[in-house]
């Protein structure tokens, strides 16, 4: 019989175990005798608040509606107490959040117009979305700013073009056209505009006054006196204008024209 020498178990060659996880981002954890994934650098994820969204208007990000309303309410409160500095700051911030908000734009442009900051008024009106440029209040403020800069003819042409593009221009648009025509010495045309307005709204004291001034400039004294008296009878005019109309009535009634 052949003798078979059996090697001790501890001496037997051990086949190398194929690591099936090699190249898959896994390694042997010697401490826990477990296969675990390699730790990889994890990019931080910045979660967007539920009430935030991406910018919808140009490149300006729009925060939550709650944020916008809070700022706009601040502007309205400042406006109510005539705090122009706070109102302007809040309105600009509100428009930065929502460039399409019409009321905020009108309020800011009006505030600047009343402060005679005409170049800034034009910046606000011209930066409006195309649809807002067709709004009568925006057009009116824009024309007044041009007139304030001494560009009465440009303002008049702008209003003429605007009025022809809308179905029914407002009385304020027509009244400003009449005033611009007076300023340019085109009193006959101004008379036509003011006559049109007082037919539409017989209780418009300001337009009666404008009509009287145009008639007065054309040398129609009797008609001018009637228009002046009509305006004074309706009332609600600024004190300097009241005084001017009263003086003209007195002079023209005496047959004087100075």
Summarize the structure.
The protein has 11 helices and 2 strands, in the order ββααααααααααα. Strands 1-2 form a two-stranded antiparallel sheet.
Mean pLDDT reading: 82
H/E element order = EEHHHHHHHHHHH
- State the distance separating the first and last CA atoms: 154 Å
**Widest sheet, order of strands:** 1-2
Helix content: 55-70%
List the helices and strands and how they pair.
Blueprint: E1 26-29, E2 34-37, H1 65-80, H2 84-97, H3 102-114, H4 118-126, H5 136-148, H6 152-165, H7 171-183, H8 187-200, H9 205-217, H10 221-234, H11 239-253
Antiparallel strand pairs: 1-2
What tags apply to this protein structure?
single chain; 258 residues; mainly alpha; two-stranded antiparallel ribbon; 11 helices; elongated; disordered N terminus
């Amino acid at each position: 019989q052949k003798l078979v020498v059996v090697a001790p178990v501890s001496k037997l060659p051990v086949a190398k175990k194929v690591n099936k996880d090699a190249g898959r981002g896994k390694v042997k954890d010697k401490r826990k005798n477990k296969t675990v994934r390699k730790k990889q650098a994890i990019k931080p994820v910045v979660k967007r608040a539920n009430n935030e969204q991406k910018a919808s208007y140009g490149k300006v990000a729009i925060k939550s509606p709650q944020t916008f309303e809070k700022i706009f309410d601040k502007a309205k409160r400042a406006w109510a107490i005539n705090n122009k500095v706070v109102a302007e700051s809040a309105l600009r911030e509100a428009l930065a959040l929502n460039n399409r908000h019409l009321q905020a734009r009108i309020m800011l442009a009006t505030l600047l117009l009343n402060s005679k900051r005409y170049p800034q008024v034009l910046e606000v009106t011209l930066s409006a979305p195309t649809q807002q440029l067709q709004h009568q209040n925006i057009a009116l403020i824009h024309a007044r700013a041009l007139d304030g800069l001494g560009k009465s003819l440009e303002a008049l042409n702008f209003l003429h073009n605007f009025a022809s593009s809308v179905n029914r221009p407002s009385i304020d648009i027509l009244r400003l056209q009449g005033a611009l025509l007076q300023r340019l010495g085109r009193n006959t045309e101004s008379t036509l505009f003011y006559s049109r307005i007082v037919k539409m709204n017989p209780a418009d004291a300001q337009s009666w006054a404008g009509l009287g001034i145009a008639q007065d400039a054309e040398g129609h004294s009797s008609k001018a006196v009637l228009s002046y008296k009509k305006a004074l009878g309706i009332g609600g005019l600024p004190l300097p204008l009241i005084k001017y109309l009263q003086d003209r009535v007195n002079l023209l009634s005496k047959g004087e024209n100075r």
